[in-house]
Specification:
Layout: H1 4-8, E1 26-27, E2 33-37, H2 42-47, H3 53-65, E3 74-77, H4 91-108, E4 112-115, H5 118-127, E5 146-148, E6 151-153, H6 169-181
Parallel strand pairs: 2-3, 2-4, 4-6
Antiparallel strand pairs: 1-3, 5-6
This protein binds iron/sulfur cluster.
Length: 182
């Protein structure tokens, strides 16, 4: 597994030039559930902490409703450094940084991988040789279970997306609450 120091010194892609912090994963290293977000936001980059600010509040509400605490899951990002102005990640950045995510999956060995949003889901689908899909096609994969090797992939919407698309909130609550059943 990578160390905090290794990550803080990482210069494998150009995002090191603009980040304040490279965020390590947080939570239980024996967890059955691993949430994989896209990248730290501006506030998370500043505070060096995952899921704080509005998307963190939303995540906490979704987890509380599912009777899951942050302490019993593991949370990480596909990209460990902030994407300036919340721009889309570049393929070369995903390729460079996914090395760390691969280490986390191998070490923590969760039963359920929960990619939050398009890019994290796309990466896992490529890693495990599942369907290729476009961003437009992504919604049809949300809330479905995909069996790979000895685990399940359960793609969900990123909590931050609810800040802009409140109309899906009921469905997102339902999908998160299924995590407990899985
Ligand atoms: S995004 Fe990942 S690969 Fe790029 S500098 Fe940060 S830690 Fe390194």
């Amino acid at each position: 597994m990578y160390t905090k120091k290794e990550l803080q010194n990482c210069k494998l892609c150009e995002l090191f030039e603009t980040r304040l912090n490279a965020l390590v994963g947080e939570g239980d290293i024996n967890a059955d559930i691993m949430l994989i977000a896209q990248a730290p936001g501006e506030l998370e980059d500043k505070e060096n902490e995952m899921f704080i600010g509005p998307s963190g509040i939303m995540l906490d509400k979704l987890l509380k409703n599912s009777q899951i605490s942050r302490d019993e899951i593991y949370m990480t990002n596909l990209i460990k450094c902030n994407l300036p102005q919340n721009r889309r990640p570049k393929q070369r950045e995903i390729k460079a940084c996914s090395t760390y995510l691969d280490m986390e999956i191998a070490e923590i060995d969760p039963q359920i991988l929960v990619p939050l949003g398009y890019y994290a889901t796309k990466y896992l689908f490529e890693k495990y040789s599942l369907n290729e899909f476009t961003k437009k096609e992504f919604p049809k994969f949300i809330g479905n279970i995909f069996l790979v090797e000895n685990r399940k992939i359960y793609p969900l919407s990123h909590p931050a997306s609810l800040l802009y698309h409140n109309e899906f909130i009921g469905k997102v609550y339902e999908n998160f609450s299924n995590l407990r059943k899985l």
